[in-house]
Every structure is written in C-alpha cells, then in structure tokens.
Design a protein that fits this description.
- Strand 10, helix 21 and strand 11 form a beta-alpha-beta unit.
- The protein contains 27 helices and 21 strands.
- It is of the alpha/beta class and about 800 residues long.
- It is globular, with a radius of gyration of 33 Å.
- The strands form three sheets. Strands 14, 15, 16, 17, 18, 19, 20 and 21 form an eight-stranded mixed beta sheet that branches.
- Among the domains are: about 60 residues, no CATH class; about 200 residues, no CATH class; about 170 residues, Glycogen Phosphorylase B (Rossmann fold), CATH 3.40.50.2000; about 120 residues, no CATH class.
- About 40% of the residues lie in helices and about 10% in strands.
- Helix 2 packs antiparallel against helix 3, helix 5 packs across helix 7 and helix 19 runs parallel beside helix 23.
C-alpha cells in the first residue's frame, strides 16, 4: 500500500486552490505551442521509406512555401501571445499587490514572482521560435541535398572562375565567413554549404553565373506585370481616410484637414478632367511611407500637435495623399517599420539581402527618415529601385550635397544628402530650388461670395501674430517693435498655454490660445495684418492669411540667413541664402499683399504700417497652391518624370551634327532652332529652352529669374558641349571636362570653357566670381512655375 504524507496532500490542495485562471492559461500555452508545432510540421516527418533515418525529411511532402508560411504564422502567433501574457501578468501583479496591501497577514516577499514568470514564458516562446527557424533551415537544406544527390551534382559546387563575373569568388569567400551574420541568408536557403552559396549568389543576387545543373525554369519565368488600368478621378475620400490610419494626433490632424477640403478636391478634379480632355492616364501603384511619424524615428511631431508645434509637414503630407488618391492611383500608407517591411516584401533579417519578390509599387513617396528605412529593408534592391522613390524635402537638396563622392571631397557632406539620386527626385514645399521638383501643398480657396464678405468684415486696425509657440516671441528687440505696432494696431496672438498666460507675450496682446483651424481661419478673415517674427521659415500660414485677405508683414534679413550663420540651417543639404522669413511670398507674390521691411529701422517699419492700414487688398491665392494647381502639377510629374529610364548612347555620326541652337536676334542668348529635331522623350520639351551666359558670381537660379524665366536643370545636357559656347560667341581658348557643380561655365581670366563630367552635378544653384555660368532657362505657366507652357 502506498502511503501519502498528509503534508503533501495539504500542499497539493493549496496549489490547486491558489492556481489562478491566468496560471492555467500560462500552463496551457506551452502545451498548445508544442501541439501547434507538431501538427504544423508533422506531415513533414511522416511517410518515411524503409531504411530512412528517423529524421529523414521527405521532399515530396515538404511543400517549401507552405512550410515557411506555417512557420511565419507560428512566429507571429508567439509574438502576439507574449504581448498578451505580458499585459495579463502586469494586471495580475497589480491585483495581487493590492490584495496584499489590504491583507496585512500576507507578507509581500511571498507574492508570486510575476517578473520571473514572464521571463520564463518569453524564454519558452523564444525557444519555440528558434526551433521553427531551425526546422525551416533543415527543410531547405534537405531540398538542396535531395536535388544534388538525385542529379549527381556533388562535384559541380565549386566557385567558378568566370571573367564575366569577377566578384563571384570574393563573394563566395565572404559568404563562407559571414553567412550567419543575417537571418535573411537562411531565409533564401543558405545553410553553410558551397552549393547553397552558389545558388544564392546566382539566383537571388547576381554575382555568380547560373549553375548549369539547376532547373532554372522557375527563376527564368519573369513575373508578368499586371495589366494596365486607367486611372479615374475620385471625389469621395472616405476610403482615403481609412487608409491614413489612426492612433496618432498627427494622423488625426491630417484626416480632419482632408475631410474639410473634400469638396474643394472634388471640384478641382472635375476642372482638371475637363482640361485634360479624356487623355489616358495609367493607374500607378503608390506606396507612401511617412518616415518622420514612425516611432523608430522619434515621432516628435505627434505629441506637439495640440501644443502649438509645427504643422507644415503634416499639412503637406495630407495634401500629397489627397492629390494621389483623387488622381485615381492605388495607394498604400505606412507609418511604422513593420508595415513598411510587409509592404516591400522584405525578407526577415537585417537588410543584407535583396527583396524576396519584385517591388510591387511604381512610385514610393517618403522623406529622409523613410529613405533610411527603405535602404535598411530593401538591401541590395535599394539601388535597383531607388529611381522610383520621391523624397519630400521641405528645404531642398542641392546637387553638390546629393553626390556622395563630390560632397565628401569638397566639404558639402551633411547628415542628410549624399544619396546619389536624381536631384529632381527631391520634392520641396516651395519652388525655391529649381534643381528639385516643387511639390507644394494647398490652401483653402474662397469663392467670390466669400471674398466679398471678407472684404466687408475686415477690421482696419486688427493684427494677428504668426507664432503659436511662446519661444517665437523671444525676439531680440521685440519690445520696441511691438510698441510701434501697438500704436496703430490691436494685436492678437494664438500662443499655446496650459494653465497661465505665457510670460513672453506682452499684456497688451489679446491671446486666444491655440485655436482649431476653422476658428483660426475666422480670426484671419477679420484681421488686417498678419505679422511674422522671423520664424518659422517658409510655413503655410502666411499663404493662408493672404488667401483670407490679410497683408503679410515680414522682416528682411541682413545678412541673409544660411547654413554659414544660422543654427537652423546648419546641416541641411543646401547653401541657399534666405533674405526674409518667407522668400516665396516676397518674390512670387509681393506688394500689396506682402511687405518685407527692416524691423530694426523704426522709420521704415512705421511708414509701412501706416500705408498698410490705409490700403485695401483682396484675398489672393496663387493658382499653384489651389487644389487644382496641385493636382495639375502632381499629374504632370507622374506622367512625365521617369528617372528609371537610362539615357541611351549617342549614335555614331560620320560628321559633327548640326547645332540645335540659334543665337537670338539681339545676340544675348541661345534658342532652340525651329528646324532642329526635338530630343525624343525630353520633358520639359526642348523647344522651351533659352540659354544665357550669367554674369560672374551669379547663380543660374538668379540669372534666369532676371529674365522672367525659371532655371531648368534637365536642359543642362543640351548645353554641355563646345558647340553651345561657340554658338553663343564665347571665345574659348581651351575646353576641359571636370566634375564641378558650377559647370558648364566660362572662366575669366583664362578664357577657358569647362564642361560637366558628372550628370548628377548639373546644378542651377551655386556661383563663383571666377565663372560665368552657362544657364538653361525656360518659360512657365501663369501661376504654375513648376510647369512650362507646353508641359501639361
């Protein structure tokens, strides 16, 4: 007879009584995981032939992709289980502590060790995950071995020495030493054998020649592109709001903006459709990855949305999403790295391998943070697909900063830049950098009735200060400046505060606090003047104020602000000099809507205020910042910008080709000859080219503006020849080709002409007193500087 210790019975009884539901759940997890693993993979280990090892894997039942799919699902399930168990453990621990505090006879040091329990659970989950990875590797290895044994190819797994693949041997050596450095290699079947190295390097990457004994039918069968679908304008944006997601204040702000502008987007789509006249537009598949909103990049914007933080970037991203959707393109939106990795089809690991499948998107819109994310996950595929990327870049990236080698050698390297993209792939908020593409944003457009109501409801002595953060009011010498304003105007502010009035805001300023956008618009519609304190630079608010009938008053900077003298611009990939808070408003709008004065000159400031108070202005919004203007611009970019098409070599000619240029009648500049053949595929069309020789020390950006034109960098290749200098009657004693972002140019003294050696360095920006730059200019559509007259 078996005797049982009474103390043991008591112990068992106590354990059963105190076993909580959570503990039962935890005990079930291990059993469930084991069952799941065995049932998912059980078929892989069945149907053995006589004489097989107990661990022989039958390739007939392996079903490689299906097995990997099961393993991936199991890994995701384990991750979800751990998260939920962690939450339950925290809840139980808190409840146990609460009961312990109320039950004084229960000592705290005898509470269940919740943290230790979670560590054990996570260790179990990790072990099961590791087993899944190992099993996957075994299955892959067995397939490879089975193929080699059945075909008798053991002797053909030596690294070949092929002059067409000079890097093959070196790559095989690297794989021998480092193939375990990234799990992505195992994902593609690498298992440490020579054959697996060669299969990977010839079929996944391209460093080794194809193996003759491999069945390449599957690898050679290129995936057929999906049939082209015509893009159709959309007017209902409800699905877009779903695509944008939720959970962040930044996304909530963007969705509210999009919803508020829905009617204007619909009307703009109707107008553009009429303008295009039914021309066919192929639907593009577009990925939008907003990198700065990811948790991994810090997402410093979302917490500040409700505290007066900068909203310009979110305004622009909301409008980009709306424009792409309204134009009828397929859209995916990601604001996390996990979503990005999934949408790219990136293999698991650290980004050393190419994508597992061809990139399913025709275009990718992202920012500098997203560019880093994409390079991380796309691995070797990044170089192949980077021509499809468009980088939203508020302040622009000049070619000298974009070219990695040149930037490093000549001191232009910064924390941004050096990506070796076509400079037109960078898209700015304002058209200040012709080397980049102007993306922009939209402001709300008023109808004629609203404009008349605003004109009749203006208070002649009311001013609103541009600045929602108290730090902006810490302007040096602001006391004198504000006292002058206070003599003539009732000053209003919209400075964020929580409990008490910000001390930086003077007592005579009526502060409304942070206002929702509709209420801020109503305040602007009453005000006469919108006042800039010098910061923030180039935001959307001044355009909104001008569109609501305000005059924008801003400070003139002397000396101009740049990366050389101002901390804000330091490290940005541009040498641009900013002469005022909002250069676009100063240069493209100007008086009477925009006044730029020296705030340190009291007489000039006071005279400007007196004139503004007496002057009546109408609400004004440049066409390029309307919904229709942005749709028109984005449509043109999608239809015509192709940075993946490599230019073909020039055909050989028996004699020098006839020059496509003629000298203008006044002998000041070059024009495209009427009888010259147009460059096929050139956009903008080559016949819009006008070429000028700039004065020494003058950038092409400014030289073209001097003649009422826009610098067009895509025309530089046409001018990058000795023929262009000769036609312009420039006396070149010699001609050299070098890598310099100022070329083509004419050097004085020396009478020497210089041509550009590196196409990525063609640049409208940049100047030197030593050179007279040869500048390509073009016309532009009224109110749409991004497009030439015939660009649409």
């Amino acid at each position: 007879m078996i005797t049982v210790n009474p103390d043991g019975k008591i112990m068992v009884r106590r354990c059963l009584v105190t076993l909580r539901p959570f503990r039962l759940f935890v005990l079930g997890i291990g059993f469930f995981s084991l069952c799941f693993l065995m049932t998912s993979l059980g078929g892989q280990f069945s149907a053995r032939r006589p004489g097989d090892s107990p661990f022989t894997v039958r390739t007939e039942v392996m079903g490689g992709p299906e097995s990997r799919s099961v393993l991936r699902k199991m890994s995701d399930l384990l991750e979800l289980m751990v998260k939920r168990m962690d939450t339950l453990a925290r809840l139980e621990n808190s409840s146990e502590l609460h009961r312990a505090a109320s039950d004084r006879h229960f000592p705290v040091d005898r509470l269940p060790p919740g943290a230790g329990l979670m560590e054990r659970i996570q260790a179990i989950a990790q072990n099961v995950s590791d087993i899944a990875v190992k099993v996957d590797q075994i299955l892959r290895h067995s397939l490879l071995l089975h193929g080699k044994v059945s075909e008798g190819r053991w002797d053909q797994c030596e690294a070949p020495s092929d002059p067409k693949f000079p890097d093959c041997l070196g790559k095989v050596e690297w794989m021998r030493a480092r193939w375990t450095s990234d799990p992505c290699y195992a994902f593609f079947g690498v298992d440490g054998t020579e054959c697996s190295f060669l299969v990977y390097l010839s079929e996944v990457e391209w460093f080794c020649p194809p193996l003759p004994w491999r069945n390449r039918t599957a690898t050679q069968r290129a995936r057929k592109p999906p049939p082209k679908v015509q893009a159709v304008f959309r007017s209902n944006l409800s699905h877009l709001l779903e695509l944008m997601g939720s959970g962040k204040e930044s996304l909530i702000f963007m969705k509210k903006r999009t919803k508020r502008l829905t009617a204007q987007w619909a009307l703009a789509a109707q107008r553009l459709a009429q303008k295009l006249g039914g021309a066919r537009r192929d639907q593009k598949q577009v990925l939008v990855h907003i990198g700065f909103l990811t948790e991994e990049s810090g997402d410093v914007f979302s917490p500040r949305v409700l505290k007066g933080g900068p909203l310009g970037e979110m305004v622009q991203w909301a409008d980009i999403l709306a424009a792409l959707y309204v134009l009828g393109h397929g859209l995916r939106v990601t604001v996390s790295l996990k979503e990005l990795q999934s949408n790219l089809g990136a293999p698991p690991g650290r980004g050393s391998c190419p994508l597992a499948t061809p990139l399913p998107f025709d275009l990718v819109y992202t920012d500098y943070h997203g560019l880093q994310h994409m390079k991380r996950y796309m691995g070797l595929s990044f170089r192949k697909y980077r021509c499809r990327i468009r980088v939203i870049d508020t302040f622009g990236t000049e070619p000298a900063y974009n070219h990695e080698e040149y930037a490093t050698l000549h001191g232009y390297r910064t924390n941004w830049g050096y990506w070796n993209l076509n400079p037109k792939q960078f898209m700015t908020m304002f058209p200040h950098t012709p080397d980049n593409s102007f993306m922009g944003f939209v402001s709300e457009e008023l109808n004629e009735t609203e404009k008349q109501l605003i004109k009749g409801g203006k208070a002649s002595n009311m001013a609103v200060v541009y600045g929602k953060e108290a730090s902006i009011w810490k302007l040096q010498g602001k006391e004198k400046f504000l006292s002058i304003l206070n003599k003539y105007l009732e000053i209003h502010g919209t400075v964020y505060y929580e409990s008490q009035r910000p001390p930086e805001v003077p007592a005579f300023v009526k502060n409304h606090g942070l206002l929702p956008q509709p209420e801020f618009q109503q305040l602007l519609r009453k005000a006469k003047l919108f006042i800039g304190f010098g910061f923030p630079y180039e935001g959307p608010a001044p355009l909104e104020a001008i569109a609501n009938g305000c005059v924008f008053l801003q400070s003139r900077f002397s000396p101009p602000h740049s990366s050389l003298n101002h901390e804000f611009f330091r490290g940005k990939p541009t040498s641009r000099e900013v002469f005022s808070q909002h250069p676009y408003a100063e240069s493209f709008i100007g008086k009477p809507h925009v006044w730029t004065v020296d705030y340190n000159n009291s007489e000039e400031l006071e005279a400007a205020i007196k004139t503004i108070v007496r002057t009546q202005v109408d609400p004004y919004l440049p066409y390029e910042y309307t919904c229709e203007g942005m749709l028109e611009r984005v449509h043109a970019y999608i239809q015509h910008q192709d940075f993946c098409a490599a230019p073909g070599p020039a055909p050989p000619r028996a004699r020098a080709p006839e020059s496509p240029f003629i000298l203008a009648p006044n002998a000041t500049h070059l024009k495209w000859a009427r009888n010259a053949s147009l460059a096929p595929g050139a956009w903008p069309p080559a016949h819009s080219l006008r070429a000028w020789l700039a004065a020494a020390g003058r950038a092409c950006t400014d030289a073209c503006l001097d003649h009422g034109l826009i610098c067009e960098p895509s025309f530089f290749p046409f001018l990058n020849s000795q023929d262009a200098f000769q036609t312009l009657q420039v006396p070149c004693d010699g001609t050299e080709s070098e890598m310099n972002h100022l070329y083509p140019a004419f050097a004085q003294p020396g009478q020497e002409c210089f041509l550009q050696k590196e196409p990525l360095l063609f640049s409208c920006a940049g100047s030197s007193s030593k050179y007279r730059r040869l500048c390509p200019c073009r016309d532009f559509r009224k109110g749409q500087v991004a497009l030439c007259q015939d660009c649409l």
